[in-house]
Amino acid sequence: MIKVMVVDDHVLIRKGLILLLELYPEISIIGEAGNGNEAITTALRTNPDVILMDISMPSGLDGYTAAKNIISDLPHTKIILLTMHDEEVYIQKAIQVRAHGYILKKSQGNELYEAIRSVYNGKRFYKVGVPEEQLQKMFAAEKPRSILTIREQEIVHLTILGFTNKQVSEKLVISPKTVENHKSNIMQKLRLKDKHELIQYGLNNGYLELWK
């Protein structure tokens, strides 16, 4: 079951999205909000897998700011920005705040479901009018940023690749105990619960390619 939260300042749109998503047995709506401030509070309380977030919300925080805060506090939660805007400047901003998905409000219900399924499974979903080649350049231009140290980033990278603690220690020429300590610090910094969440975080934030 995918736990989904819907954020939109227009009640009719929000309720309509909820009714649409409730048609899919795999999706469970666990919360809703009318602005960015409510979105952050509700997300921290309900711990959703995926948040469908409107960008333009005049009252309170906008969708970009709310998304950035939620991704920082709940790195395992995926954010799909929902908007009427298909211009490059809006898409670039979504990439900057590290939104996992970007989809237009005019999209069909099956596309919305596809977006939710994709980001839930660790994939990026940007359904936009910008050519794919240009979109990839926009992602490539956005440099990875992290609260982790270089050593911690190396450990995340190796963990994604399937290395055990012993193998990581041999590769980095440190003790297995030091690897364990680093992993503990990483989990605390990112507020992650287990190895699965660590791997998902690494995949979603570019750590697979970071050290190539």
From TrEMBL:
Keywords: Cytoplasm, DNA-binding, Phosphoprotein, Transcription, Transcription regulation
UniProt-annotated location(s): Cytoplasm
Annotated ranges, domain Response regulatory: 3-120
Domain named HTH luxR-type: residues: 141-206
Alphabetized CDD domains for the sequence: LuxR_C_like (cd06170), REC_NarL-like (cd17535)
Residues the record lists as 4-aspartylphosphate modifications: D54
Pfam families, A to Z: GerE, Response_reg
MF GO annotations: DNA binding
SMART domains recorded: HTH_LUXR (SM00421), REC (SM00448)
Protein name (Swiss-Prot/TrEMBL): DNA-binding NarL/FixJ family response regulator
